Amino acid sequence: MAIKLTLCSKEILDTAFSGATPGYSSLEVDSFLDTVIRDYKIVESNFLVTKKDVESTQVKIKELEEKVKNLEIENKRYQTRFEGIKNNDKNVSADNINLVKRISALEKFVWKQGFNPNDIK
């Protein structure tokens, strides 16, 4: 989102007001300050929006990092589980993978029933 400001810092610094009898023209100074205020409101609103975006992005990053960590743990668990499921050619066969999936589904069902599949003989 691009910010379109009316003034730059150099213009603010170099602005000269015509002197009235007691000092500067109050109308000229007021109109200049109104322009400066408008610019600051634009910058402030952009800053607040950007700050909210950064905060929400940081929260999302933390959630995704936690999810990646959990998936890496689960991946490691499956790797150790599949190490023993190799045929004579040292390759994992599709039949073995299907059997592991079926066993996993049955284990989940048994867990839901309140039993520990490791205790069943």
What is this entry, summarized?
This protein is 68% helix and 0% strand. It is mainly α and 121 residues long.
Shape: rod-shaped
- By DSSP, the count of extended strands is 0
Radius of gyration: 34 Å
Low-confidence segments, ≥5 residues, pLDDT <50?
none
Major sheet, described briefly?
Answer: none
The percentage of residues in β strands lies in under 5%
What order do the helices and strands follow? HHH
- State the helix count: 3
Number of domains: 2
Q: Please estimate the helix content.
A: 55-70%
- Cα(first) to Cα(last) distance is 64 Å
- Label the structural class: mainly alpha
Mean of the pLDDT scores?
80
Description:
This protein is mostly helical and 121 residues long. It has two domains: 16-83; 89-121. The protein has helices at residues 9-14, 26-82, 94-112. The longest helix is centred in the middle third of the chain and has 57 residues, at 26-82. The protein is rod-shaped.
Any key phrases for this structure?
rod-shaped, 121 residues, mainly alpha
